[in-house]
């Protein structure tokens, strides 16, 4: 059976971590890689990946290396980070040569729900106004609207089922 790589994206506070964890628990052999966790590995000299091309490239290089290692050992990989379809094509083209299926999903929710979820996070994790900026960015990206999954009225288990079963989230080269 072919392994899968799942890219779980969306604005801050939309439920990427919750969904990614639930998805990883449903798959027999899986690993869950948080892009945020990878981006915070540098202890000093840390830069925000949305403000530094070098920081963004470093996160991607680490995501790719980890993904390739886990695929080599027969794991499905779930990557949770704020990314676009274009990011995958620019920073991760070598993943397309692996014998894997790749799925890309942009979790989406009502703006009010999204903003309120962000407010429930710890103060140092809140993104505030950046939530609205990210929402605008996702809506303006071309070619990724078919990958949106509105989770406003869905339970996490239903979101996971949709991600696993829907062929429309498959990425074609």
Describe this structure in words.
The chain is α/β, with parallel strands linked by helices and 173 residues long. It has a single domain (3-169), classed as Rossmann fold, CATH 3.40.50. The protein has helices at 16-26, 35-39, 53-72, 85-91, 111-119, 129-140, 156-165, and strands at residues 3-9, 30-34, 76-80, 100-108, 148-150. Helix 1 (16-26) crosses helix 7 (156-165). The chain is globular and about 40 Å long. The two termini are 20 Å apart.
Helix and strand layout, with pairings?
Elements: E1 3-9, H1 16-26, E2 30-34, H2 35-39, H3 53-72, E3 76-80, H4 85-91, E4 100-108, H5 111-119, H6 129-140, E5 148-150, H7 156-165
Parallel strand pairs: 1-3, 1-4, 2-3, 4-5
Helix pairs in contact: 1-7
Assigned CATH superfamily: P-loop containing nucleotide triphosphate hydrolases
What is the number of E strands? Answer: 5
Task: Spell the H/E element sequence.
Answer: EHEHHEHEHHEH
The fraction of residues in strands falls at 15-25%
CATH topology descriptor:
Rossmann fold
Low-pLDDT runs of 5+ residues are none
Helix fraction by DSSP (H/I, runs of at least 4): 40-55%
Average pLDDT figure = 93
CATH architecture: 3-Layer(aba) Sandwich
Q: Which strand order do you get reading across the main beta sheet? A: 2-3-1-4-5
Short description:
This protein is of the alpha/beta class.
Key words describing this protein structure:
single chain; 173 residues; alpha/beta; Rossmann fold; 5-stranded parallel sheet; 7 helices; 5 strands; globular
């Amino acid at each position: 059976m072919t392994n899968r790589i799942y890219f779980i994206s969306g604005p801050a506070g939309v439920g990427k971590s919750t969904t990614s964890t639930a998805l990883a628990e449903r798959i027999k052999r899986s690993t869950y890689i948080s892009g945020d966790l990878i981006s915070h590995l540098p202890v000093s000299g840390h830069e925000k990946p949305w403000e530094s091309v070098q920081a963004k490239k470093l996160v991607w290089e680490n995501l790719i290396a980890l993904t390739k290692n886990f695929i080599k050992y027969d794991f499905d990989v779930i990557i949770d980070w704020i990314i676009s379809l274009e990011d995958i094509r620019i920073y991760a083209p070598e993943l397309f040569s692996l014998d894997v299926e790749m799925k890309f999903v942009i979790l989406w929710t009502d703006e009010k729900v999204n903003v309120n979820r962000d407010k429930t996070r710890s103060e140092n994790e809140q993104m505030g106004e950046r939530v609205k900026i990210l929402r605008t960015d996702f809506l303006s990206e071309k070619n990724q609207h078919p990958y949106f999954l509105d989770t406003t009225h869905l339970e996490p288990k239903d979101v996971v089922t949709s991600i696993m079963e829907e062929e429309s989230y498959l990425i074609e080269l």
